[in-house]
């Protein structure tokens, strides 16, 4: 069986790593990298550290407006699919790479599997929400991370090929946490610090970015902020300065990121994946958005969704440690094996 996996952006490398390992003995997997993320620290380091097979095709599309980026990817992925004629195309999450590959597959009548199907934020002004809804609508196999995701699909009338397999990122987080145990750190972290990431399009506008930085400025302690290129450019373009307690560093590889998050007092983020990664590692999360796709992290008391309200963020930071029994129940391991089995014998 031949599977083509299309990835392009950081969180997809993390998710695909888990499934690639599970598929090793079951299928012939070819990886296509769209090139959506191309800086070595945003891409290559993940392939090396997570032991992901070298991409067979590197499309080198790079940054552009959403339409141009998605369109160029669609054209280039179609060419690959016409040559390779796989049994499955597999896509992850909600980026422009996800939607482009999904469209290319469905137009060639190649079965499509979507890992992390059924997530919803309810906000159509987020590019990710559009990408997810459209991808789910045309997928044959919808591999959901939670019951909640299954319910979202049912509410949209999608029930065929839907499975709750659990969250594949969980497998990579736990594997990486084990891999770095006892490793000598090169990060030079202080004893007490908070960690943050900020990159959402809607948080880096001239209206929102000053507020987001003010939230970090209100945190009682040092905030270490691996800086996404989009945010770095936005800070420079808007003539902003980081608050004094915020220490910006280059984007981190996956192992360093897991180390940073594990040792943090808490994480403040607008990322989707990091909310869950932090909780799995036992670190409290404050989400700098108005909503979350990972409602389970909120219901188990591990995540407070505060928007850009500095007072609410500071209050949330003082809550106690996480209930790890609840965390492990909400995020069980083994999702990547379940994905691999369903691809080989779909039900
Ligand atoms: C994308 C995903 C988002 C995901 C994020 C993970 C979409 C719509 N969004 O957002 O869901 O959470 O990846 O990080 O697909 N840039 C570089 N070097 C790179 C990559 C990007 O400098 O290697 C800069 C460019 O200025 C680019 C900007 O970052 O225009 C944004 O990159 P893009 O891939 O468009 O979206 P992300 O914000 O990374």
Key phrases:
single chain; 347 residues; alpha/beta; Rossmann fold; seven-stranded parallel β-sheet; six-stranded parallel β-sheet; globular; binds uridine-diphosphate-N-acetylglucosamine
Small molecules in complex? uridine-diphosphate-N-acetylglucosamine
Strand arrangement, largest sheet? 3-2-1-4-5-6-7
Strand content: 15-25%
Q: Given the C-alpha coordinates, what overall shape results?
A: globular
Helix coverage percent: 40-55%
| CATH architect. name of the largest domain | 3-Layer(aba) Sandwich
Determine and state the CATH class of the largest domain: Alpha Beta
The strand count comes to 13
Order of helices and strands: EHEHEHEHEHEHEHEHEHEHEHEHEHHH
Q: Can you tell me the residue ranges where pLDDT is under 50 for at least 5 consecutive residues?
A: none
Provide the domain count.
2
Helical element count? 15
Overall residue-averaged pLDDT value: 96
Task: Profile the largest sheet.
Answer: 7 strands, parallel
Report the CATH superfamily of the largest domain: Glycogen Phosphorylase B
- Rg: 19 Å
State the end-to-end distance. 16 Å
Remind me, CATH topology of the largest domain? Answer: Rossmann fold
């Amino acid at each position: 069986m031949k599977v083509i996996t299309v990835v392009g952006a950081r969180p997809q490398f993390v998710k695909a790593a888990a499934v690639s390992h599970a598929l090793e003995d079951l299928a012939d997997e070819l990886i296509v990298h769209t090139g959506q993320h191309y800086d070595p620290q945003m891409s290559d380091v993940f392939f090396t550290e997570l032991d992901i097979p070298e991409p067979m095709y590197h499309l080198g599309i790079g940054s552009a407006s959403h339409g141009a980026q998605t369109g160029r990817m669609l054209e280039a992925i179609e060419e690959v699919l016409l040559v390779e004629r796989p049994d499955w195309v597999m896509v992850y999450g909600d980026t422009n790479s996800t939607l482009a590959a999904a469209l290319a597959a469905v137009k060639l009548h190649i079965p499509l599997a979507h890992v992390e199907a059924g997530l919803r934020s309810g906000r159509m002004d987020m590019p990710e929400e559009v990408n997810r809804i459209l991808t789910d609508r045309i997928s044959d196999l919808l591999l959901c991370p939670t019951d909640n995701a299954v319910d979202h699909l049912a509410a949209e009338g999608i029930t065929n090929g839907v499975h709750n397999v659990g969250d594949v990122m969980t497998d990579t987080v736990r594997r990486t946490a084990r891999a770095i145990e006892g490793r000598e750190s090169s990060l030079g972290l202080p004893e007490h610090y908070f960690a943050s990431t900020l990159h959402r399009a809607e948080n880096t506008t001239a209206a929102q970015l000053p507020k987001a930085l003010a939230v970090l400025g209100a945190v009682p302690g040092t905030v270490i902020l691996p800086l996404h290129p989009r945010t770095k450019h936005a800070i420079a373009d808007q003539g902003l300065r980081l608050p004094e307690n915020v220490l910006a560093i280059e984007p981190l590889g996956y192992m360093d990121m897991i180390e940073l998050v594990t040792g943090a007092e808490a994480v403040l983020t607008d990322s989707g994946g990091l909310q869950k990664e932090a909780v799995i590692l036992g670190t409290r999360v404050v989400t700098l958005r108005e909503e979350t796709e990972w409602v389970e992290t909120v219901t188990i008391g591990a995540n407070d969704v505060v928007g850009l309200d500095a007072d609410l963020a500071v209050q949330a930071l003082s809550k106690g440690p996480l209930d790890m029994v609840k965390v492990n129940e909400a995020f069980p391991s083994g999702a990547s094996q379940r994905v691999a089995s369903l691809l080989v014998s779909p039900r």
